[in-house]
Amino acid sequence: MALHKHKGVGRGPSATKADLKSKARLAYNELQTKYHAELNKLASPNSLGKNRGNALSGADRGITLAQRRGRGINVASNAQATQIATLAIGISYAGKGMVALDAGIRVNHVHNTYQQGGNWQREAAIQATGFGLGGAAGLGVGKMVVMGLITIGLGLTPVGWVVLIGAGLAAGFGAAYAVDKYSREGAAYIYDRGRN
Amino acid sequence: MLESTEGKLYVLFFILAIVMSIAWLTFSRLTMARIEGRMKAQGLPETFQWDGVGGRVFFYAFAISLPEKAALRIDQRLINSALVRSYASRADRFRGSIFLCSFCLWIIITFIGILVGGK
Question: For helices B5-26 and A158-195, what crossing angle results, to 10°?
């Protein structure tokens, strides 16, 4: 980790770099003696000791990977790859959950209107319009913002990804809110005109 | 209904929403589903694991409909534009452009509507 952060040049920094390299080799040797069986499971046998595979294949491979100026999120092990896959599935469920929550709130709204003796059919038409169009707008604008920001290089660092996901969500919510509000007003306007 | 600016904007908004929805469905069923099916048949990995509700349709639309130079600038981690483009036909590009244009126009009309002032 320390070597990965270390990007200095010149005499002083390169001495530190050599020091860090030897520390990495020592640590790897220790790892190999203590956890030999586990290491063999994690790193594929044909990459052991060669300059390929992941950081656990060998000390020199680890050093090469650490010195590389990573583009995006650096995946150093199988465990981290699994974590990213879990995050992806989590985002997928969060997306579906948001839609279900929105639908639930709207159904509740229509039910309240019905219980209060209001025109629930009008309310249902209005809410259904807002649900479909607002959702569509939020989805589209969020994706477009992510695509735009990643093209200007915001996806290069893990912090950048956090900003990216945040900006995408914010823009998506903004657009969904605006379109939802406008389409509900429009639906009410057209519904009332159509009835008269 | 059409006598006021407000009413005209509402009607335009809904017409565009309908056009956009049809273009969205057409593009996602006839283009995206077909391309994904062909990629899956060739054993290529699924890259949109995170997508729960189908937002990836926008990535496909941009990757296919933009001019080649611009499409290839879309980040590889989002979508492999070169690969997706190799499966796309002229009809796919046309469907994608209609979808994106109607969507953008629809969003612009919404904001104009809000600025002009709803009821």
Answer: 120
Q: What is the rounded CA–CA span in Å between residue A187 and residue B5?
A: 16
Q: In chain B, helix, strand, coil percent, each to 5?
A: 70, 0, 30
The packing angle between helices B56-65 and A120-151, to 10°, is 50
Reading the block at residue A152, the tokens are 């200007």
Distance, in Å, from the CA atom of B33 to the CA atom of A38, rounded to the nearest integer, reads 42
| The two three-digit tokens of residue A157, written as one number | 């660092």
Q: For residue range B31-84, what is the model confidence (pLDDT) as tens digits?
A: 999 998 999 898 887 777 777 777 889 999 999 999 888 888 887 778 888 899
Q: What percent of chain A has pLDDT over 70?
A: 66
Q: What is the 3-state secondary structure (H, E, C) of chain A?
A: CHHHHCCCCCHHHHHHHHHHHHHHHHHHHHHHHHCHHHHHHHCCHHHCCCCCCCCCCCHHHHHHHHHCCCCCCCCCCHHHHHHHHHHHHHHHHHHHHHHHHHHHHHHHHHHHHHHCCCCHHHHHHHHHHHHHHHHHHHHHHHHHHHHHHHHCCHHHCHHHHHHHHHHHHHHHHHHHHHHHHHHHHHHHHHHHHHHC
Output the six-digit token pair for A175.
């657009």
Beta-carbon separation of B51 and A95 below 8 A: yes
Task: Determine contact, residues A109/A120, Cβ cutoff 8 Å.
Answer: no
B117 secondary structure, DSSP code? -
Kindly report the nearest CA distance between residue A193 and chain B, in angstroms: 7
Q: Is 0.90 exceeded by the ipTM? A: no
The rounded distance, in Å, linking the Cα atoms of B29 and B27 is 6
Asked whether B85 and A124 are in contact (CB, 8 A), the reply is: no
Q: Which of A99, A178, A190 sits opposite B110 (nearest CB)?
A: A178
Q: Give the predicted TM-score (pTM) of the model.
A: 0.68
Residue of A nearest to B75 (CA): A151
